[in-house]
Design brief:
Shape: elongated
Low-confidence stretches: none
Number of helices: 10
Radius of gyration: 23 Å
Number of domains: 3
Order of helices and strands: HHHEEHEHEHEEEEHEHEHEEH
Number of strands: 12
CATH architecture of the largest domain: 3-Layer(aba) Sandwich
CATH topology of the largest domain: D-Maltodextrin-Binding Protein, domain 2
Structural class: alpha/beta
Strand content: 15-25%
CATH class of the largest domain: Alpha Beta
Length: about 300
């Protein structure tokens, strides 16, 4: 098995067509077909379903595509790192994250990215999860950090960390003296959530259905700053990660109380469009991003 074979296979998988992949690679279609067939013979696996109307990956092909991308990615990184070329990379990396996470992640990410890639440009988009998901699919974002995102044929998902969710309330309020709150107690509280669909709200509501708890949602608000202001003024409570308090300039007026019995946990994942092959800059930027996320979002 040769590296070029892996690259040929990846191109065919990403283009969904031997003819389009051959044109992109500037080789003939028969040559490309033979290379992929040789790979299938070596692996003793069919990697593609072939049909008169096109081709698509088999389950073995889907698994091997992940392996092939990982191998070529690591070889590219090794070449760039060993040559010291990371500081010379140019281009743009567009990354999206939710407002609650932006408060904690943005400054460390900008610092690390700028130090590693001084000639490249980092674009950060702050938006709601559902809109970030749409931008990843459309190619406007190279990657996004999303809550509880399921993988699909269109989106590749890489879990990064798990975060406990907290009840966010105001200092001096009725809940301020509590060191924890049982989930069932949320039934008696006025709650403020982003409008559905929202992954954190969906998580809370799903648990409420399972536990037989009826939530009292008093406001639907699609703005983190506005939600925090309403909580701060005593109009209700919300559920989020403790990081939103850590990044708030007026955090002394807010309090994050752990939720128990059961605890609520959200999984943060890096998501990117399956059909978009990342450049060397994008691959290396994702490595920097993983390091930053695991450092700043690690449990205390």
């Amino acid at each position: 098995m040769e590296l070029e074979q892996l690259k040929y296979f990846i191109q065919v998988a990403e283009h969904g067509s031997f003819s389009r992949a051959a044109a992109a690679l500037a080789v003939t279609q028969p040559f490309l077909s033979r290379q992929v067939r040789r790979l299938e013979v070596e692996l003793h696996r069919h990697l593609f379903y072939r049909h008169g109307r096109g081709i698509w990956l088999t389950e073995d092909g889907e698994r091997f595509l992940r392996t092939a991308r990982s191998v070529t990615h690591q070889l590219e990184l090794a070449t760039v790192v060993s040559s010291g070329a990371a500081h010379e990379l140019t281009g743009r990396f567009a990354f999206g994250l939710t407002p609650t996470l932006s408060r904690t992640v943005t400054v460390p990410l900008v610092r690390a990215f700028t130090a590693r890639f001084p000639l490249a440009r980092l674009s950060i988009v702050e938006d709601l999860s559902r809109k970030l998901h749409e931008r990843v699919l459309s190619g406007q974002l190279d990657a996004a950090l999303l809550h509880d995102q399921a993988a699909s044929t269109q989106i590749e998902v890489e879990p990064v960390c798990r975060l406990d969710l907290h009840l966010l309330t105001r200092q001096g309020g009725a809940m301020a003296q509590r060191d924890r709150v049982d989930f069932a107690e949320l039934a008696g509280l006025p709650m403020i959530f982003p409008s559905p669909p929202n992954p954190l709200r969906s998580l809370v509501e799903s648990q409420a259905v399972s536990a037989g708890v009826e939530l009292h949602v008093v406001y639907d608000v699609d703005g983190v700053e506005t939600i925090l202001d309403l909580v701060r003024e005593g109009y209700g409570h919300t559920v989020t990660s403790a990081h939103v308090v850590g990044g708030d300039r007026r955090a002394d007026s807010l309090l994050a109380i752990p939720i128990a019995s059961p605890a609520l946990v959200t999984t943060l994942s890096l998501a990117r469009a399956s059909r978009h092959r990342p450049s060397t800059l994008h691959r290396m930027a994702l490595d920097v991003l993983r390091h930053v996320l695991k450092r700043v979002l690690a449990p205390a």
